[in-house]
Design brief:
The protein has about 160 residues and is an all-alpha fold. It is about 80% helix and about 0% strand. It has one domain.
């Protein structure tokens, strides 16, 4: 089943509400998977596998509420940071496309924008890797190895 993506404004409203509940300690650990699902449904298809990794990590340590909360907080940070990067990347792609269609567009300007796009895409990859490393610290090497195994298996089916 394909989930429809929510507008960015709604995603930020959900994130703010989740943060508020977590700050006020009104959110129970049992509520977090649903909140995770809401955020996931607002996520581009290409990012869902990355964010599902956090959900699978929480499943691995579900008995340790402290670790579950750490992973939830990390996921929220990742969604916020990566959403901003993704929005900037999309805007640059559109701008490059539009410029390339103009007859009076300067090649140098298009190349500069393309270089910026490449930088942002590299930053996106580095940022994802950084979040994976942070997740590894929370889980520990053995649980992370198990997470990686489960994550690969679920992606195949």
């Amino acid at each position: 089943m394909m989930l429809l993506a929510m507008p960015e404004r709604e995603l930020y409203m959900i994130l703010e509400r989740v943060k508020e509940l977590l700050r006020e300690d009104k959110a129970e650990i049992k509520d977090l998977p649903m909140m995770g699902f809401m955020m996931l449904s607002a996520t581009p298809e290409s990012e869902k596998g990355f964010y599902m990794m956090f959900e699978r990590a929480k499943e691995l340590v579900r008995e340790d509420k402290g670790k579950v909360k750490q992973i939830s907080d990390l996921k929220i940070k990742a969604v916020e940071e990566l959403s901003k990067l993704e929005a900037e990347i999309k805007a640059l792609r559109v701008k490059i496309h539009e410029l390339m269609e103009l007859s009076d567009a300067k090649e140098e300007e298009i190349r500069k924008l393309h270089d910026r796009l490449v930088e942002l895409e590299a930053k996106m990859h580095r940022t994802k890797f950084s979040y994976k490393m942070q997740l590894r610290k929370i889980l520990g090497p053995e649980n992370f190895k198990e997470l990686h195994r489960r994550h690969r298996m679920k992606d195949k089916y």
